[in-house]
Amino acid sequence: MPAQVTERQYQGKVHEHSRRLMSDWMGRLSRAEAEGQPTGALMISGNCVELLLACHILPMFPEVTALQNAIRHKSLPLILKAEQAGYSSDNCAYVKADIGLFLDGGMGPGKPIPFPTITVCNYVGCNVYVKWFEHLADLSGSKLFMLDVPFARTPGEPTQADVQYVVAQLKELIALCEGITGRKFDIDELREILGYAARAEEGYARSKDLCKAHPAPFDAYFDAINMMGPINVLRGTKEAAEFFDVAVAEFEELVAQNLGPLSEERFRIVVEGPPPYPYYKNFRNLFAKWGAVAVASTYSTVGGIWEWGFRHDARRPLESIAEQMLRENLTNRSITARYQQIKRYVEEWEADALVIHSIKSCRLFSAGQGDMRDYFTRELGVLTLLVESDLEDPRYYAEAQLRNRIDAFFEALEHKKLVVGAAGRRGAGALPSEATV
Amino acid sequence: MTPDQILEHCRDLSSQPLGAVAERWKATHPGGRVVAAYPVWAPAEIIHAAGMLPLALLGGGTSVELTHADARFQSFVCSVAKSSLELGFQGIVKGVDGFVFSNICDVARNLSSIWKRNFPDAFVDYLHLPQNSTSPGVPVYAANELRRLAAGFEQAFGLKVTEPALAKSIEIYNALRARLRALYAFRIAEPQKLSTTDLYAALRAATCVPPEEAIGWLDALLAALPLRDARPRDRLRVVVEGAFCEQPPLGLLEVLEEAGCYVVEDDLLLGWRWFTSDVATDGEPFERLGAAYVNQAVPSSTRHEGREHRSAGLIEKVRRSKAQAVIFTPAKFCEPALFDYVLMKQGLERAGIPHMIVEFEEKMWTFERTRNEIETFVESMLFD
To answer: B313: domain CATH number?
Structure first.
């Protein structure tokens, strides 16, 4: 194995800034009940957070609570509580951690996480969302609004009929929110919010585009989490827009200085699938030691795919919210559309390999990733590694097994690079492009 | 024909591979097309109105060994998705020209596009059925989604679904569903004369033939069943809930009854008896079918019903069938059934209805443990 790769202390400003913004939001959430501030539960994927903001409803995201508990190593007792209540070991552990939080006394009146005043299920392809929010509404007694977003099942743009179907439901939601807050909805306020959203989207897209640089200025999988809070939870606020202004400036500076997150960028990878939050740092280290940097990831697009140019449009407020929910997020698109997304990442971000992290909890992401591997290895000749664990349940994380597979993969990759380099120096013919571990 | 003869015919029909069923029909319908629907519900009326044969893609059960599909789908994915895909890889569905999937769960969703990638010559459509059941625009949306499917058939096969043809197909399927409802009602009244394996045989066979043909022998069966000689026994009347997608092995259904139950209601092949009453027979047919999906659907774990609690439909089923208990039978890894189990069991407990859970897998072949569990449950109820 070559010289040791070290992590540069690069996370400074962006990480701290993100943490501060998210803490502020969590603080507001914990005070909401006492201050009489209505709250609205939403899912991350393809959400309409701008609309809730315009309706003066504080958004809350059970997925964020679940992942925060996982990253703080608090998820297992919550999952077990839910399983004792009847949830299956085969159910999504995100949901179980959320329900377990309630059963454990961490959610509800007078608790750090309040009950939502309204539960808005933005059903964008994930069928577990429907179940999760049915359960959340049941235990909290909150009004459940099922916002049905047709799956991206036809080629090209969403049809006008689909857009109008979603817009009609958004109008219905606005009326519901008006009833909750007693405040009249102001379309100009929504336009202003969408302006901030578009600015944040531009910044997020620019940040990701900067990862085309060699080395990439940040890890687009492990570090993207710092940006996913502001883009998915706080999108539409002035603070989130400003966050991305700062982040872009910092990343541009890193690119100018030729600096990446590691002391050396040996391998550029694309990562598919959510991370194992209970062992986030451990998992990261398994790649970092090989000098592997994620230059693009699919998980960072669950909330929205901004890198292909879509922006919320203040001139067409409800229509553009509908379009984003319908087409411009990973979850409402087919798994094979994701193959094409990854293919673009591999080609345009000049990646050496694809790493698929398959998680049991989220079948939307994972069901069929064997077929994905087949496509990339057999049809495209992209080196592909598939490993399994979970995003929330620590019982499914087997580090020794993961390390073996990851080490074997990068050894093979390194060998290939060496052989290709030697062959190139000798002017020899092409080497086989297929390899999988 | 006696009930036994009819049921033997049914078992023979449903034991044949899907491709063979398709080819047999095509032999008498030159140039005909066959479209199979993955669970739970698909508008068979539209397939039928295009002049095609609607079939059900229900996985491979115990008949197929996985040699390709388990490399595509992981170990934590339900068996029916993998064995259905395997049918494709092994050519067992050769002769079926199209496949319709819908948004019942995340696995089915991904299966649809993986099917399309691996079998590019087949027609594949993914229906987005509405999960919002209350907004005013939903029935119109549902009708448009059905029109989109019909347009897909026309584009792929050159077969147009005309309004008169669809109106006729709705009537035929109304008639079929009425027979199936009658069979269920008969079982509630006289479960000793119609076992669940027999009922399942009739139901499954109805997915293998044109509805007109199924109506013929269902009528004969309905006429003959009351004449069957069977004495009521001291058994526990139960509702079976959770097997709406992956097909339980017949051995499991047998064990349920052998262990002392009368299954008086279930959700087996739910999509083929989807509507609680006839779809309206006047008005634009796509709109009628779309509106029926929204307003006349049976309670299902794959459909959100905003007008009542998740357990309400099940409790109503228990009351209507005069059942004493519920046996949950979710397929292994079936998220819709496993999630609903929690809210349903809470509802049952509030209503004072006993319940137990038995997970199954389509390839399950040993049932002794299940038999013991059910016997214990039954005894605890009957001799309490």
So the answer is: 3.40.50.11900
In a domain, B74, yes or no: yes
Taking the mean position of all CA atoms in its chain, how far away is CA A186? 30
Nearest CB to B333: which of A90, A123, A374? Answer: A90
Residue B367 lies in a domain: yes
Nearest CA in chain A to B309: A138
CA–CA dist B364, B201 (Å, integer) = 19
Looking at the structure of chain B, the number of domains it has is 1
Q: Which of B85, B115, B116, B117 to mutate to test the interface with A (most CBs of A within 10 A)?
A: B117
ipTM (interface pTM): 0.96
Distance CA A102, CA A107 (A): 5
Instruction: State the smallest CA–CA distance between residue A331 and chain B in angstroms.
Output: 10
Q: Which of B75, B59, B24 is nearest to B332 (CA)?
A: B75
Q: Give one DSSP letter per residue of A211-230, joined into a string.
A: TTSSS-SS-TTTTHHHHHHH
Q: Which pair of tokens denotes residue B384?
A: 């309490």
A371 touches chain B (CB under 8 A): yes
pLDDT tens column, A275-329: 999 999 999 999 999 999 999 999 999 999 999 999 999 999 999 999 999 999 9
| Max CA distance (Å), chain B | 63
Give contacts of B111 with chain A, Cβ < 8 Å.
367-368
* Chain A residue numbers touching B309 (CB-CB < 8 A): 138
The A143-148 sheet, strands edge to edge: A58-60, A39-41, A118-123, A143-148
| Minimum-distance CB partner of A88 among B71, B106, B338 | B338
Q: Does A90 touch chain B (CB under 8 A)?
A: yes
Look at A334 and B109 and tell me if their CB atoms are within 8 Å.
yes
Q: Rounded to an integer, what distance in angstroms lies between the CA atom of residue A433 and that of residue A346?
A: 14
Question: CA–CA separation, A30 vs A205, rounded Å?
Answer: 31
One-character DSSP codes across B285-298: HHHHHHHHHHHSBP
Residue type, B250: L
Exposed / middle / buried, residue A412 (Cβ in 10 Å: 0-12, 13-18, 19+):
middle
Among partner residues A87, A123, A334, which is closest to B342 by beta-carbon distance?
Answer: A87
Regions of chain A short of the pLDDT cut 70: 1-2, 9-12, 427-437
Task: Tell me the Cα Rg of chain B.
Answer: 20
Domain containing B83 equals 13-160+234-384
CA distance B155 to chain A (A): 14
Tell me whether residues A127 and B126 touch, CB distance under 8 A: no
Residues B325, B328, B330, CA angle at the centre, nearest 5°?
Answer: 170
